[in-house]
Write a structure and sequence with these properties.
The complex is a heterodimer.
Chain A: H1 2-21, H2 37-47, H3 78-100, H4 107-126, H5 137-142, H6 149-163, H7 179-198, H8 203-209, H9 211-227, H10 232-248, H11 258-282, E1 287-291, H12 305-309
Chain B: H1 5-11, E1 16-18, E2 23-25, E3 29-30, H2 39-47, H3 50-103, H4 106-131, H5 140-148, E4 150-151, H6 158-173, H7 181-197, E5 199-200, E6 205-206, H8 216-235, H9 238-249, H10 255-279, H11 303-306, H12 310-334, H13 338-362, E7 366-368, E8 387-389, H14 390-395, H15 399-407, H16 418-435, H17 445-451, H18 453-467, H19 477-484, H20 493-504, H21 510-527, H22 531-538, H23 557-560, E9 567-568, E10 571-573, H24 574-583, E11 588-591, E12 595-598, H25 599-615, H26 625-631, H27 645-648, E13 651-653, E14 664-666, H28 671-681, E15 685-689, E16 695-700, H29 701-705, E17 707-710, E18 713-716, E19 718-721
Parallel strand pairs in B: 2-19, 9-11, 14-15
Antiparallel strand pairs in B: 3-4, 5-6, 7-8, 10-13, 11-12, 15-16, 17-18
């Protein structure tokens, strides 16, 4: 459907050009942004018989890289182009920041500033207020084609931001980290320093000495978990610390009381055996009184009927 | 039934034998689905206007709606109560375990858990054992019998309902290996029986409505609607509910009924859904149509894998049934005193806790928590920080949640490793087998889902697939798990297939599920009957199966019937009637060939006549059908009616009250023929006449039910007093 519209537009343009110049060549033809190579071939097939201007030999004019200007009214205004450029810059800044903060995850604490900038410019683009020259960039930049690239790009980053739940770590205006986060970082650093101090030598000393700070950190974390003030940075750093504590330093609780557990369990398992044995031995067996039905024939012996037959 | 103890004492001491499956209990009477078309009935019908019939039809719909609504509400209550009670229990135990993991003394947590479990179960078992033994078990066998036409004493009383609901809450919260689905079906049936009668005999409250429905035929229709509503609330499967009723009560199915039953089912699942969504603070969300919620399954099916191994499942189901059979016999013979039963239930609860704890304690399988499992009760124990014991996810949880977590963990993260899974399955198999048949009200459906030998197998297979990373697309363990879930135990194929399809909300699995069920049933049937059938047999219920036993054509009515029959004259002396009624406990007495009159009718007659006579002989009010209905369903025993010497001499005319056109068969009719009549018409008595139309005998349900096909051909069951 869409292709046809484009085709119609192009045909109209071609005729327009023909009428205007009456020359043999149309040296510039504008390609719709969606026009694919397939579309072009189709177009050629339709247009060729009618139009003298269209020759296969001149197919080189229709290069996909060719960028020429639309008429005035279809052009994107300078203001919008400028906005777009700023958007591009900030976008790449943020992405660079994200990539460099991917492991260990620090996307919230390192990149909230650039995200703030990006958000600003996008808000600017998407606002419906008219800029200078009475143009709204929202329509021309965001919604004039199927792909909606700017929107798509921004949306992806927004998804990343939401997925990492950075909002719970960064204060409302995106100007600084929240106090909770800063406090957590401080506590975390304390624990890590402690780990560093005792890392050499026996780990059991470490387990003993750093237990208090580590437990404090753990409690803080679970409190924050309850309040839902966790972002991916905190989660990740906590995970790493926990792994350090449990796997590297081996400070988890040992399984130390096998004997009492086994003893109690076997006692419990022993109870039903006693119960069933005693009820088997002491409880009197329930007997059923048989009743002889009234029958026409005296088949009182309730033996197998088949036996009777045979 | 026919006989009296008098005869026995004449013949000598009655023989006593231990309980076994080849007995028919005298306790159970038959329901009367055949309308007695006596003169009173005809008169009433004549008086009733066209509008009256329309009103009846409308009130049937209203009743069905009410049944659905109330059943849904009850399901909702059960769900909420179980969630909260279990939540409290697990919270307390979890706190305790966390405390003692650090300082040592975990055996105390073990004892705490066992004690908590036992306490809940004790409560549940006490109310069942001491107040209402009829509420024990899943209730599905009882409802099956009721729909088959057997009157199980006290099965549809209000008291039973209350005990059942409380009992199931206690036993699920008590951590037994049980589900809450079976009890839902029973509850629905009780609600139906209660609502349709417009009164409660237990509460001594008569609303004076729906009096027309006070007889067995109408009541049965509503009970089947109630059972359907129960199924639908339990599984969120309205169509499955209708089919369940159809499958179980199909012998007397009425096409007109189907639509009403469907209505009741729909209402019930909607009510549950609606109220649960309000409870979960998401009004209008409507995401939990049933008590059990499997969630969504993604649909890509590789059928070859789905069909991997239903055979082991059938085998395992058969093993389950055989074990349970022996256990039940032992229970009936030796553990019959209520206090023993309560003790047994408590022991099972304690052992369940112990085994679970030991499993969790000695498990080395630690897994990080998934993103959506925050609401469960994760136990860390000796796992690294941030990881949790995966055995605890299976055991330290209500069975329903275990099911959900088993079916729904993402394929990438292996939440359960094969060893954990096999151990869990093995323990759960024995626990569930041990638990079913206890004197607590509880269902067997969820355990059978959880057991799944088959499930383990399928799951192991699928996990292996992941391990070898043959194909990531195939690696959706939950699906195979689901299809593998072991349903060899129960064996109701049609309705179960539909229930499963509906509960998963996925029609794509219809065929695989069906094939799996079919294979499991065939394999299982080869070894042993379904669990419910076993329990029906062990209860000595005169259950009429679909068809008469094969090779029974040579048996004729003459050999099957009970004889001689007590006969009255059309106009009989009161004294004679009272004597006859007092001497036997038979239920039917026969006016020669002119008609059939029931014991219950006679008793009502006597009661009223006696009262009338005492007042004045002149102003005799005419007895109406209403008087019989008021007495339904609990007719007084003959002993409660006192007849003076004077009254004994009076004459009583039975013409008006007897059924003038009872079904009769000649003596030479074969057993399968008689059987078909009984099954299709829902008869209670069938008169056997000779060539001159004289009564020679009477066939009742027990006369037919006693024949069954055993190892050595046709065998006869004995009547016994239980």
């Amino acid at each position: 459907m869409y292709i046809f519209q484009v085709v119609a537009l192009l045909i109209a343009l071609l005729y327009y050009g023909n009428a205007q110049t009456s020359t043999v060549a149309v040296n510039h033809t504008i390609l719709g942004s969606e026009l694919s190579a397939d579309g072009l071939k189709q177009l050629a097939a339709i247009v060729a018989p009618q139009s003298p201007v269209f020759h296969p030999s001149r197919g080189s004019y229709f290069s996909l890289n060719l960028l020429s200007a639309f008429p005035e009214d279809l052009e994107v205004s300078d203001y919008c182009v400028e906005l777009l450029a700023i958007f591009g810059q900030r976008y790449s800044t943020y992405v660079n920041c994200l990539v460099s903060a991917a492991r260990p995850v620090k996307v919230c604490q390192n990149c909230y500033g650039s995200y703030d900038n990006l958000m600003d410019i996008y808000t600017n683009i998407s606002s419906d207020q008219m800029g200078p020259g009475n143009v709204s960039c929202r329509d021309s930049l965001l919604r004039s084609d199927r792909l909606m690239l700017v929107f798509l790009l921004y949306n992806n980053l927004e998804d990343i931001w939401t997925g990492s739940e950075c909002n719970s770590c960064v204060s409302l205006g995106l100007h600084s980290l929240t106090n909770d986060t800063l406090y957590f970082m401080a506590t975390l650093n304390q624990s890590l320093r402690c780990f560093e101090k005792f890392q050499q030598g026996n780990h059991s000393a470490l387990c003993k000495e750093c237990k208090a700070t580590y437990r404090g950190l753990n409690e803080l974390y679970s409190r924050m978990e309850k309040n839902r003030t966790l972002c991916i940075d905190i989660e990740d750093s906590m995970n790493m610390t926990r792994r350090l504590w449990s796997k590297n330093f081996n400070c988890s609780f040992p399984r130390a009381e096998n004997v009492p557990v086994i003893a109690v369990s076997s006692f419990m398992l022993f109870l039903p055996i006693i119960f069933y044995l005693s009820s088997f031995l002491h409880s009197e067996q329930k007997k059923r009184k048989l009743i002889h039905p009234k029958r026409a024939k005296s088949n009182t012996s309730l033996v197998n009927i088949q036996d009777r037959l045979s | 039934m026919h006989p009296s103890l008098l005869q026995d004492s004449v013949r000598g001491c009655p023989k006593e034998i231990p309980h076994n499956e080849k007995l028919l209990s005298l306790k159970y009477e038959s329901l009367d689905y055949d309308n007695s078309e006596n003169q009173l009935f005809l008169e009433e019908e004549r008086r009733m206007s066209f509008l009256g019939f329309k009103c009846l039809e409308i009130s049937r719909w209203v009743i069905c709606g009410l049944i659905g609504f109330l059943t849904g509400l009850i399901a909702c209550c059960i769900d909420i109560a179980v969630e909260n009670l279990a939540g409290v229990k697990y919270y307390v135990v979890k706190q305790n375990i966390e405390k003692f993991t650090e300082v040592g003394g975990l055996s105390i947590s073990l004892i705490l858990w066992a004690v908590l479990n036992s306490a809940f179960v004790m409560l549940g078992a006490v109310i069942v054992a001491f107040f209402e033994p009829g509420a024990a078990g899943s209730g599905i066998p009882q409802i099956k019998c009721y729909l088959n036409g057997v009157k199980i004493p006290r099965v549809v009383r209000l008291k039973t309902l209350v005990v059942k609901v409380c009992g199931v809450i206690c036993s699920v919260a008590g951590g037994l290996a049980v589900g809450k689905e079976g009890p839902m079906i029973h509850s629905g049936a009780v609600v139906a029986a209660g609502v349709s009668q417009g009164r409660s005999t237990s509460l001594k409250k008569d609303f004076k409505i729906f009096e027309y429905f006070r007889r067995d035929t109408e009541k049965r229709d509503f009970v089947s609607a109630g059972a359907a509503a129960g199924v639908s609330a339990a599984f969120g499967a309205p169509v499955g509910g209708v089919l369940f009723s159809l499958e179980e009560g199909a012998s007397f199915w009425n096409q007109m009924l189907t639509w009403r039953i469907f209505f009741a089912s729909m209402i019930s699942t909607f009510t549950l859904n609606f109220f649960l969504s309000i409870y979960n603070n998401k009004p209008g969300d409507l995401s939990s149509p049933g008590l059990i919620n499997f969630g969504r399954f993604e649909s890509d099916v590789s059928v070859c894998l789905l069909l991997s191994s239903p055979k082991p499942c059938g085998l395992l189901g058969a093993l389950f049934n055989i074990l349970n059979y022996w256990l039940t016999i032992f229970r009936i013979r030796y553990v019959h005193r209520p206090c023993l039963q309560v003790m047994e239930a408590m022991l099972v609860a304690a052992v369940t806790a112990t085994v679970s704890f030991a499993m969790i304690y000695f498990s080395n399988d630690c897994q990080p928590l998934g993103p959506d499992q925050s609401e469960d009760y994760p136990l860390q124990l000796f796992c690294a920080d941030g990881e949790y014991n995966s055995m605890a996810t299976a055991f330290f949880n209500t069975p329903e949640r275990s099911v959900r977590s088993l079916f729904h963990n993402p394929p990438g993260r292996l939440f359960y490793n094969p060893l954990t899974l096999s151990l869990f399955t093995l323990t759960y198999f024995f626990l569930a087998c041990w638990t079913y048949g206890l004197t607590v009200s509880a269902g067997v459906f969820i355990p059978s889902l959880l057991i799944g030998a088959h499930r383990t197998l399928a799951r192991l297979v699928s996990i292996m697939f992941v391990c070898r990373s043959l194909s990531q697309v195939w690696a959706v363990p939950g699906k195979y798990a689901f299809n593998g879930s072991c349903r060899g135990i129960v064996r109701m194929t049609l309705s179960l297939t539909v229930i499963m399809v509906e509960a998963t909300g996925n029609v794509t699995y219809g065929l695989p599920i069906m094939l799996v069920l079919l294979t499991a049933k065939i394999v299982g049937d080869y070894f042993v009957e379904g669990l419910y059938d076993i329990h029906i047999k062990l209860q000595s219920v005169p259950f009429l199966h679909l068809e008469a036993p094969a090779t029974s054509h040579w048996l004729t009515a003459r050999e099957v019937m009970g004889a001689p029959v007590t006969c009255f004259n059309r106009i009989e002396k009161v004294g004679t009637i009272v004597d006859v009624l007092s001497n036997t406990s038979t239920n039917h007495n026969l006016g020669k060939i002119c008609g059939l009159i029931l014991r219950s009718q006679l008793i009502v007659l006597l009661k009223h006549k006696v009262r009338e006579l005492a007042r004045s002989r002149l102003t005799q009010r005419k007895l109406q059908l209403k008087d019989f209905r008021d007495a339904y369903p609990r007719f007084p025993p003959i002993q409660s009616i006192h007849v003076s010497q004077d009254e004994r001499e009076c004459m009583m005319d039975l013409t008006e009250f007897m059924n003038p056109t009872p079904y009769t068969v000649p003596q030479e009719t074969s057993l399968p023929r008689v059987f078909k009549l009984f099954r299709a018409l829902g008869l209670r008595h069938l008169v056997v006449v000779d060539s001159e139309n004289r009564v020679v005998g009477l066939v009742t349900r027990k006369d037919l039910a006693r024949y069954h096909l055993g190892k050595h051909g046709l065998e006869e069951m004995q009547l016994a007093q239980t």
